[in-house]
From TrEMBL:
Biased composition (Basic and acidic residues): 1-13
Annotated TM spans: 56-79, 99-119, 126-149, 155-174, 181-201, 207-237, 249-271, 324-343, 349-371, 378-398, 404-421
Positions of region (Disordered): 1-38
Keywords: Membrane, Transmembrane, Transmembrane helix
Stated name of the protein: DUF2723 domain-containing protein
Domain of life (superkingdom): Bacteria
Organism the protein comes from: Paracoccus alkanivorans
PANTHER family xref list: TRANSMEMBRANE PROTEIN 260
Length: 557
């Protein structure tokens, strides 16, 4: 027996001559097939659909509140994080001080930091920034996951299952509880996808324009959103009679300009005297081109395309899919994709929506494979999120007309999602702060410094954690704190230098000095620390041959 049509309302024949605009807004002989958004059918259907809309809206608000409670209660307990502790600590600095983060600059995140500082909430700065940057956007992403699955399966219960599955997936849960930009990125991705689904299904121009507005705002968060441009082009070409008119085109161009204008705020921050140095770009920028190169992230250019030189990025992406729900998530995605292609013969209105969300996830696959930072799993969330949501929705859509199977599947999906959510909560609650003792450790190391104003060369993560306390005035101010590769520049024109390297990494830093300044000789000494010290360190003194002391010291290494 062929599956019944998704059109839940009787067709109405309209024998009057319609204008060209009306013809563009609906397909010939086809009314909007789903019970929401608001229909134009009279009588009891309108009342039923009104209640359905409000029931979905109220449930979506409950989903947001539940997700916010879940993520907010499981925030990473301090500076840093599990996936990328240095970046997370750096974003947390924005909770109390205006700084520049790494390229492309993230002006929307800088604005968010400004709001957090303005509110001056009675909570630790690192907690407030993590909550605002990750927990709230993560909850928005989960809400859109619910709306997408509910829309495509016409089941609130199955929409709840889809939301729970995404919320309890390993990578999603970590990104929504640590200070990073990818929960916000996924919120933009799923929000844009939901609006495009509404447009594709209803052909109402306002949904397309809303999708463009959200999309343009997303460029202030991460420039990887450019990967969605082909999706917009495909949707535009399919619906060119609706979209390619002068008024919609003008509105879209206006949205593009508004999105790009966020980088004017970045320029303002870069030239503001209140912005503190954070190791990335000299402040203020010497030239406009220096700022442009910073936005383009050209210092990451060695990673561009390097992911295609081996299979490491592909292997890492597959590992992400496997670990989301160990033993379940990768088979789920495979089954979902197969059912989607098998549904080609029943290409109803829901199938078109599935095509949008699958296309969204597929859009980010080239970036995940092309960019060579295979060890940064956070880049995979824009792929994992849409594919996980789409796969759950596909299975629900496929079984929607088989009531018993659909009911059993819904119950099983809800139970599995809740069990996994409990497991995920236990894992997240066991995380320990990576930089809990960094402030006291730095104070102890400075007391053992061989010179009065030392250079303290640090690994990236330790440096960002120290920056958090440095800008709060909670660590000694006499040293010059730098990451290893920035500290090297401080010795170029000095007849003698001294300081501390933490953590000790094979005395590599001193070797760098001697390579850059062959006229210098260095001596090193391991610093006294407790046996359980997290960051072993050593002091160093380097002198040019003209000023070198006669007594030899320890050789590095």
């Amino acid at each position: 027996m062929p599956p019944r049509s998704n059109d839940m309302r009787p067709r109405r024949e309209n024998r009057t001559r319609r204008s060209g605009k009306e013809k563009d807004m609906t397909t010939k002989g086809e009314n909007p097939p789903f019970r929401h958004p608001l229909p134009d059918a009279p009588g009891r259907d309108v009342i039923a659909d009104w209640f359905c809309l409000h029931r979905v809206a109220i449930t979506a608000l409950c989903v947001f509140a539940a997700a916010l409670t879940f993520f907010g209660s499981l925030l990473y307990p301090g500076l840093g994080g599990v996936l990328n502790s240095g970046d997370s600590a750096k974003f947390q600095v924005l909770g109390h001080t205006s700084i520049l983060v790494h390229g492309p600059g993230y002006p929307l995140v800088l604005m968010l930091g400004t709001v957090v500082r303005f509110l001056s909430l009675p909570v630790p700065d690192w907690w407030a920034m993590t909550f605002a940057l990750s927990a709230i956007p993560g909850s928005i992403a989960i809400t859109f996951a619910f709306l997408i699955v509910e829309r495509l399966t016409q089941s609130i219960a199955f929409g709840l299952a889809g939301a729970i599955w995404l919320a309890s997936a390993s990578l999603m849960a970590v990104q929504a509880t640590e200070a990073e930009v990818y929960a916000l990125t996924l919120a933009f991705i799923l929000g844009t996808s939901f609006l495009l689904i509404l447009f594709v299904q209803t052909r109402r121009l306002n949904f397309f324009l809303a999708a463009c507005a959200v999309y343009s705002l997303s460029f202030g968060n991460h420039l990887m959103m450019i990967m969605l441009v082909p999706m917009f082009l495909i949707v535009t070409l399919i619906h060119y009679r609706i979209v390619l008119r002068w008024r919609p085109v003008a509105i879209v161009l206006g949205f593009i300009l508004l999105g790009a204008s966020q980088y004017l705020y970045l320029a303002y921050i870069a030239y503001s005297p209140d912005t503190a140095y954070s190791e990335y770009m000299p402040l203020p920028p010497a030239t406009v081109m220096e700022l442009i190169h910073y936005i383009l992230g050209t210092y990451f250019s060695d990673l561009y395309g390097s992911g295609m030189q081996s299979t490491l990025t592909l292997e890492a992406l597959l590992t992400t899919f496997r670990s989301a729900y160990p033993g379940l998530s990768l088979p789920l995605v495979i089954v979902g994709v197969l059912l989607f292609f098998a549904g080609w013969t029943r290409r109803d209105i829901a199938w078109r929506g599935l095509a949008v969300i699958y296309g969204t996830g597929l859009s980010f696959v080239p970036f995940a494979l092309w960019y060579g930072a295979y060890d940064i799993q956070a880049f995979h969330l824009p792929v994992l999120g849409p594919f996980l949501v789409a796969s759950v929705a596909t299975i629900g859509w496929w079984l929607r007309d088989r009531k018993l199977a659909f009911t059993v599947l819904t119950a099983a999906a809800l139970v599995a999602g809740l069990v996994r959510a409990g497991q995920t909560a236990m894992i997240l609650s066991e995380r320990e702060p990576a930089f809990a003792g960094v402030r006291s450790a730095v104070e102890e190391l400075v007391r053992q410094s061989p010179v009065e104003n030392p250079i303290i060369a640090m690994s990236y993560g330790v440096r960002m954690a120290t920056l958090y306390y440095e800008l709060r005035g909670e660590v000694p101010t006499t040293p010059t704190y730098r990451v290893h590769w920035r500290a090297i520049a401080l010795v170029e024109d000095q007849p003698s230098v001294g300081g501390i390297v933490v953590p000790a990494e094979g005395y590599q830093f001193v070797r760098w000095i001697e390579e850059k300044r062959p006229d210098m000789t260095c001596r090193t000494q391991e610093l006294r620390q407790s046996e359980d010290a997290a960051w072993p360190a050593y002091s160093f003194e380097c002198h040019s041959q003209a000023t070198s002391p006669s007594a030899p010291g320890n050789s590095p290494g």
